[in-house]
Specification:
heterodimer; A: 104 residues; mainly alpha; Helix Hairpins; 3 helices; B: 204 residues; Four Helix Bundle (Hemerythrin (Met), subunit A); 68% helix; 0% strand; globular
């Protein structure tokens, strides 16, 4: 069988990328790496959307949603990195455990 | 092995190795390069799935903007960007959640493989599926309002990012020099500083 012609391959690959991203978000304490892990998860979701749109190819809805996810991810990264910059100025570190000002 | 199979295998390997590099690298620059590898791999998979427009968008937006932003921030932070976790002694709550997630997703994947019947991709019109005209028509006919909202979102995000990044952290407080700890000052009336009161009396 030709590799990559079956939707299961794409779903498995996207599952693996999503799991790696989620684990990275939970395990790492560097805010930059955590943001990159979020990007990994968003990318894997995009992959499933496009793969399912290829499988049920009546319209371009999956592509449209993936397009919006890309736009929202770009906005999220811009604001998130600005917050990381401010956080570094405030605490002198990008360690996410340092963000404890709201802890009573 | 057809060319399509080779493309899928190469792109899947790129995606997985890049994702692992993002999570495991100590240096954030290496993590950013891993993210770039994953993004290029996913763009290749988009091409395999006849999503030419999204593959171009993926390269333009992610590789061209997002990864560059990450690299710029790492450059601005300097050596402080690499400061990561102190060595973890005992499994924390996050690690337990991560382990449970791995177990769940692994079981899900094994169940998916063991299910047996696989779903082939059907035939499509390869000239129009995923082209700029098809996706653009879909966006502008069915998704016009979300599209305009996305433009507003991007504008607000850009203005907000500039506003957040330019302000100093101390700018959040009023300009008066706060001397005493505000938590101990609350509900206690005016400050009675002997020196200050004496000076005021002398002035009077």
């Amino acid at each position: 069988m030709e590799l990559g012609l079956v939707i299961e391959h794409y779903v498995l690959l996207a599952t693996a990328i999503f799991a790696i991203g989620a684990i990275g978000f939970l395990m790492r304490r560097n805010v930059l790496v955590q943001l990159m892990s979020i990007e990994l998860m968003l990318n894997s979701v995009n992959l499933t959307l496009v793969a399912f749109n290829r499988r049920f190819s009546g319209d371009m809805n999956g592509h449209m949603f993936a397009f919006f996810i890309i736009a929202v991810a770009a906005a999220e990264v811009a604001v998130g990195l600005a917050i990381v910059l401010q956080f570094y100025r405030l605490r002198g570190s990008v360690h996410s455990d340092e963000a404890s000002s709201l802890r009573h | 092995m057809t060319p399509g199979s080779v493309l899928f295998a190469v792109c899947a390997a790129l995606c997985l190795s890049g994702a692992l590099l993002v999570v495991t690298a100590k240096n954030p620059i290496r993590s950013a390069m891993g993210l770039l590898t994953t993004i290029i791999g996913i763009a290749g998979l988009f091409l395999r799935l006849n999503a030419q427009f999204l593959a171009a968008m993926q390269i333009l937006v992610y590789a061209g903007a997002v990864v560059i932003l990450f690299v710029f921030v790492v450059m601005l932070l300097g050596p402080g960007a690499g400061a990561d976790a102190k060595p973890l002694q005992r499994p924390s709550f996050s690690q337990l959640v991560a382990g449970g997630l791995v177990a769940f997703l692994g079981a899900l994947a094994i169940g998916l493989i063991g299910n047996g019947d696989e779903h082939l991709f059907g035939p499509i019109d390869a000239t129009t599926h995923g082209s700029v005209a098809a996706v653009g028509g879909r966006i502008f006919k069915q998704g016009l309002v979300p599209f305009e909202l996305a433009t507003a979102l991007l504008l607000v995000a850009v203005v907000g990012a500039i506003a957040v990044a330019r302000s100093r952290p101390s700018g959040l407080r009023p300009k008066a020099k706060v001397v005493e700890n505000p938590t101990t000052r609350m509900f206690k009336g005016p400050v009675n500083r002997p020196g200050a009161a004496g000076a005021a009396r002398e002035n009077a």
